[in-house]
Give the backbone structure.
Amino acid sequence: AQSVTQPDIHITVSEGASLELRCNYSYGATPYLFWYVQSPGQGLQLLLKYFSGDTLVQGIKGFEAEFKRSQSSFNLRKPSVHWSDAAEYFCAVGARTNAGKSTFGDGTTLTVKP
Amino acid sequence: AAGVIQSPRHLIKEKRETATLKCYPIPRHDTVYWYQQGPGQDPQFLISFYEKMQSDKGSIPDRFSAQQFSDYHSELNMSSLELGDSALYFCASSSDGPPTDTQYFGPGTRLTVL
């Protein structure tokens, strides 16, 4: 069965600082991996995804993520955080069968200090 | 660009009542997914439909049923509501089809059961 672990429940960074959110997955083969962002009371917005090919994936809002098979990780990074990035971030793994059902991690809440 | 539409956005019901949530996918998307997100929880996959047929089933209670109609919209029917059903219900749609689909999420329906 597929699973996702986001080790950090809550992260606080200063505006302008760099950010890395961790994600580890468990899946029997090469997974489909996603990062979503959710602002309070809002829906999930897709930041980026990895299916195959280049292991460094660029997304929207200046985010990127790197797929590392050897570490079963798909960490999300941003070089300079903006106050508007404060939100909850979910990593998800999608199956390559069964209409792409996604399994989500528990989420990481990002707080940005002025 | 058109997004996934969910209605209603908010719904308040009492225990043992029924509720129907509707999802209108992005035009030309043929796959619909339903997720349930409890307070402070990550989204949990309930059920999905591809070309109007159920394609996968997750942790959906027997009290819930869903279907996808000829115009590809989907409805989630919930009966004998319980307090624990209070959650944010997301619908997502995709067009690539399994197994490489990217899911686009709607804003969610917030169901409160009193």
Observations:
- Chain B has a mean pLDDT of 89.
- Chain B touches chain A through 28 residues (CB under 8 Å).
- Chain B has no helices and eleven strands.
